[in-house]
Amino acid sequence: MTFFFSVKNQQTDILKRIFRLNKNTEDESPHKEGTIIETWKILIIDAVAKAIISPLLTTAQLKRLGITVVHDITAHRQPIYEAPAIYIVQPTPENIELISEDAKAQRYDSMYLNFISPVELSQLTELAKRTSEDGTSNLITKVFDHYFDFITYEHNLFSLRMENSFLKMHDKKMAPGDRDIFLNSIATSLSHVFLTMQSVPIIKCSNSPNVKKITELLTEHMRSEKFVEAMAAMTTDSQSSSSSSSSFSSSASSASGGIGLNSAERPLLLILDRTSDVTPAIQHQWAYLSLINELLDYRPGRVSWMSSLSLTAGDKADAKAGKKMAIVNFDSDEFWRENIDADFELISERIQEMLTQYKDDAEHIKQRYSAGDDGSTGAQAADLMQDLNPLTVIKTTLDNHTLIATEVTSRVHKRILDHYAGVERELMEKRDVTGNALELLAAEYALRGTAYDQFDTTYTGNQAGSSSSDSSASSSASASSTAAGELARTAAPAMQTKGTFSDMIRLLCIAYLSGADCTPFRDAERQIENWKHGLFPALRFVRHLYPNVAPAQQGAGSFLARLTKKASFDYVIPKIAKDVMNGTSSAESDSLLTYDPIQDSATASSSTTPARQIYRKVIVFVVGGGTTAEYLNLMQYAKANGKELIFGCTELLTPDKFMSQLASLGRIVFGDI
């Protein structure tokens, strides 16, 4: 499957040029004997570079590009001569120090320094000074600035790696200067995304102060001489022109012709605020990707987890054996590509369908070779294996997804997440499910912790009684903790799991945001609060953030009711994006501000114009963190309507991460609870 509008492809192309020592060579081509015509090279990376490279290029692809050894820059390394060393690292003081130490130790004959983002002149000056004093300046062949300090999960999904971004956006205790630095870092990284994509977008943004500030800063970056020169260099495939021609020149070379564009059709960048809708970050989702993101460790290009069978193992060897990992990406995994947005209950059925097809195809190939047997068994065996190789890849893929689905199923059942997802969906669709919700909000049957690998095999109920005093609750919690093993063996089978405290608080948040009458939930809230659960302040902050949500205001003030039309629910951010792409007038889309970095004017214009434009290529970027639910929603829409869409965010949220940020903000606003 080919993705023409892809941030991943562009980022991968930059890496390939780096591995060819920033030379404009053709794609790797096999020698007639099957070897690759490449110079053997050493790759030195830091943790950030590893996170960027690993989902883009496999070990086999790196080898075809001439990379024979990969080292962490912080690891102890032996000298390797007669092979150039390629560094891909952040421009940090620590990395500059390590590079100078490598030069002093003369570990490599030649060193090509590639910084993930532009390096400061002061840092290069310090490096030049140190290597000059050591007499090793000649080892540093070239220094290159790059602009790919972001993570791509898929062709149409990227993150800026900015953890706790929602917290930083709303922390009232954060110094204004620190917030300005943070907002500028978002704008800078976003400008790097578009340098990588080699395009300058038209920008629309929400009118919130933080988002407006980011957009203004981004527009300034794109109008700067440095950006124009870097764009001109990248659009002519001359990566070295944005770096030094000698060891320590950080200035970008001059470029003519202004801003370069790779297409006559400019994309739209839509920058929106997480506060426009926190629902998808809190709600219990039911799509395959969303459950993987919540319950397992979803990273770019892979899913990893600790098998539930090994979570209670006391032996370290057993725990190590329980670590599982599967590679998942659109390029090599057809099942992932076709089912990433499927409801989870369909996954098992679709695995079985694909497995049946695999068996039929394998049997057909075997019968074909058996029918044509002419005695050339050796040649036939070779041909048979060659034809079966693609099916072997499919079988490995199915085995991986079987393991993933089995693990997700185990964790869903433990926390009855299907019940939570169903009740929340019905609340959002304005159905009266108070009774079903109250059945879930039983704190005495809550699992402890919010991460699966932290769960006790016990419940935290008050076994001594139902006193609401703080001392009684604290005493009961302590008793439950110390008696964990015994309780798991005796009481657990007779009890019914109600999920975690986090699951309960998320349900209470959704009930509040839906405009439902929350009066029946007050007793459950007090019970959870009495347990002094760390995430309870999150509920208070949600109410603080949206103070006008109440049952009596469902027509205007209800956060979710205003989005529900004919029982068809849509999240705020995807709805705004769809309205903008279609040129549809709505209160949300009409309130957006428009910026054009190519125009000289620095002022924003209103989105309300007589002729509303329809956009085919759109990048939706969420400040404060994006969610898999919004990503999948928009991808389904783009596929059905012939749009090309990329979803980006400051960070890809999990419910636990977001609830933790909400709780921190709740404690800032209300004090410790």
Tell me what the structure shows.
- With 673 residues, the chain is α/β, with parallel strands linked by helices.
- The chain folds into four domains: 1-149, Rossmann fold, CATH 3.40.50.2060; 162-277 and 571-673, Sec1/Munc18 (SM) protein, domain 2 (Rossmann fold, 3-Layer(aba) Sandwich), CATH 3.40.50; 288-415; 418-553, no CATH class.
- 46% of the residues lie in helices and 11% in strands.
- It contains 26 helices and 16 strands.
- It has an eight-stranded mixed sheet with strand order 6-7-16-15-9-8-13-14, sandwiched between helices.
- Strand 6 (151-154) and strand 7 form a beta hairpin.
- The protein is globular, with a radius of gyration of 28 Å.
- 41% of the residues are buried.
- Residues 25-36, 238-264, 450-495 and 552-568 have low confidence and may be disordered.
How many alpha or pi helices? 26
Helix percent band: 40-55%
> Strand-residue fraction?
5-15%
CATH top-level class of the largest domain: Alpha Beta
CATH topology of the largest domain, which one? Rossmann fold
CATH architecture of the largest domain: 3-Layer(aba) Sandwich
> Radius of gyration over alpha carbons?
28 Å
Poorly predicted runs of 5 or more residues: 25-36, 238-264, 450-495, 552-568
The name of the CATH superfamily of the largest domain reads Sec1/Munc18 (SM) protein, domain 2
State mean pLDDT (0 to 100 scale): 81
Q: What sort of overall outline do the alpha carbons produce when their principal axes are compared?
A: globular
Helix/strand/pairing class, anyone?
alpha/beta
N/C terminus separation: 52 Å
Q: In what order do the strands lie side by side in the largest sheet?
A: 6-7-16-15-9-8-13-14
Biggest sheet character = 8 strands, mixed
Question: Number of DSSP strands?
Answer: 16
Count the domains. Answer: 4
